[in-house]
Design brief:
alpha/beta; 9 strands; 5-stranded mixed β-sheet; single chain; Beta Polymerase, domain 2; elongated
Length: 296
């Protein structure tokens, strides 16, 4: 008897490439496999039609993500990547198209409402425009921000910094001023070492590297007949533990005297009654506590 599972069976990619490629027809520019998923490159003006075909005819119900990529050397420097999920077949595919700063991409908000926020993020980070998005505003950067942070030609430090001024008691925008230049890193092997003196090393007293210490004879290493004669000597010779009797030595005498404690009155079983709450009899002026018990 077959076992039923709540999760749908994973759709094999074999054969899916030809099926979806035939369905997209003239809209398709290229299709290939990357990291176990199919990646379809389509015409920019056809992206809305392509996504509708995949949603309605091939059960890719969910738009999971829209991502941007920047290739500054290309004529159309940006790529917009749509990641789709089919809950019916438990399969994911990616669809992408190219764009430039002046060529808007048709919006996907007519197909999925969540595309509005995803397109706003791509617009904010890369500057890609989406035709038909009625609320294309920045979503991650601040009001009045200039530039798009994920472009590969965007400066690492940005143009302006936002900070709170204690003098003016308000938030102010200022051009970025660096207290020091960006650090330069030498990605060299730690085993080779630098061919120059690192900051701070000039204070160290180290032997010159050009005059290495050699051990051509046993005398240079400290070994020899004289060393072998003392090798069997105890390292702990002359220590107090060796002179006072070794492991069988008696315990040392105490270094201070403590008066003997008085013997405890009562038994340990009386402690439960000693922790009982106060009663009128135990209040001030009441009878004295019994022997072996203490008054709270």
């Amino acid at each position: 008897m077959a076992t039923l599972h709540s999760a749908p069976r994973f759709t094999q990619i074999n054969g899916l490439k030809d099926t979806l490629g035939k369905a997209l027809g003239a809209h398709l520019l290229d299709v290939h496999e990357e990291h176990g998923e199919l990646l379809f490159t389509v015409k920019r003006e056809s992206i809305e039609d392509v996504l509708r075909i995949l949603r309605d005819d091939h059960k890719y119900q969910q738009l999971m993500e829209i991502a941007g990529v920047d290739y500054p050397s290309r004529a159309e420097r940006f790529e917009v990547v749509y990641m789709l999920l089919s809950l019916t077949t438990n399969n994911r595919i990616m669809v992408k198209c190219s764009a430039s700063e002046d060529t808007p991409v048709p919006t996907a908000t007519t197909l999925w409402p969540n595309a509005g926020w995803l397109e706003r993020e791509v617009f904010d980070m890369y500057g890609v425009l989406f035709a038909g998005n009625i609320d294309l505003r920045r979503i991650l950067t601040d009001y009045g921000f200039e530039g798009h942070p994920f472009r590969k030609d965007f400066p690492l430090t940005g143009y302006h910094e936002l900070r709170y001024s204690e003098d003016e008691k308000r938030v102010v925008y200022e051009p970025v001023e660096l207290a020091q230049d960006l650090r330069q890193f030498d990605f060299m092997s730690p085993w080779e070492g630098a061919d120059y003196v690192l900051p701070g090393d000039e204070k160290a007293d180290v032997p010159p590297v050009d005059e290495p210490k050699t051990t051509e004879t046993p005398k240079d290493t400290g070994a020899g007949k004289k060393t072998d004669e003392h090798a069997a000597d105890k390292v702990s010779a002359g220590a107090p533990a060796e002179e006072d009797g070794g492991e069988n030595a008696p315990a040392p005498e105490p270094t201070e005297d403590q008066p003997a404690r008085a013997e405890r009155e009562g038994k340990t079983t009386d402690t439960a009654e000693a922790t009982e709450p106060d009663t009128p009899d135990n209040d001030a002026g009441g009878p004295a506590p019994a022997a072996g018990k203490r008054k709270p």
